[in-house]
Amino acid sequence: METLRISSIPTLQIPANFDKTQSKKVAFLGYKQIQTSSFSLVERHKPSFKTFTTKSSSITTETENPSAPQVETQTQDEKFDWYAHWYPLMPVCDLDKRVPHAKKVLDIDVVVWWDRNESTWKVFNDACPHRLAPLSEGRIDQWGRLQCVYHGWCFNGSGDCKFIPQAPIDRDGPPVINSSMTTLRDCWLWIHTSKKACVGAYPSTVQNGMVWFWPNSDPRYKDILTERKPPYIPEMDDPSYTCLMANREIPYG
Description:
Blueprint: E1 2-7, E2 49-54, E3 87-91, E4 101-105, E5 108-115, E6 120-125, E7 139-140, E8 146-147, E9 154-155, E10 161-163, H1 184-193, E11 201-202, E12 204-207, E13 210-213, H2 224-227
Antiparallel strand pairs: 1-2, 3-13, 4-5, 5-6, 6-11, 7-8, 8-9, 9-10, 12-13
């Protein structure tokens, strides 16, 4: 606690017929009392004091409640996983259901195409498992399957290979030397159902007029949409708001 004192200044009253010879007897009063003659021209006033009390606030770095849990900070072991989040891919208004579309997100080449059999947009890895030809340069066949432009392999909405022109399932031939395959048909059937003949399919959905995808084709994320949904912006679906969408390729990050 600090105390501040302010003293009032004594007033001097000097008459008009002041004698210069008496100027030496004029005294300026301080805090100590000074004796003057009875005919002193200085009217003494007892100085008055005013006391102001101020409280200085103390600054401390201690918390008010030491037992309260502290805010957890991100450690080096808890790194941000870029491939464990939903990402907007393309506005639906910029997509053509008749052809596949190529996109690159997080350095991942994907193809977006309309699966009319399931009436939804699909997002695949943009590489045919046969010779890694871009599926985005292929087409949608008459059965609504995504067909590769190179050798004509066809894939359904789950990424399974449903047709290989060079190895049709109904083709017959000599037996193949394999204990589990007695005919060439068994060989063709194995090729179609093999995981090596399937294309990587990413979880996808449509929200706020945009196609979103989860950039991980691992089967454990197949039903990720039931657990985590893309961030929803209600104003984009509100007709009282005006929403403009644009799509632009930026080949750098």
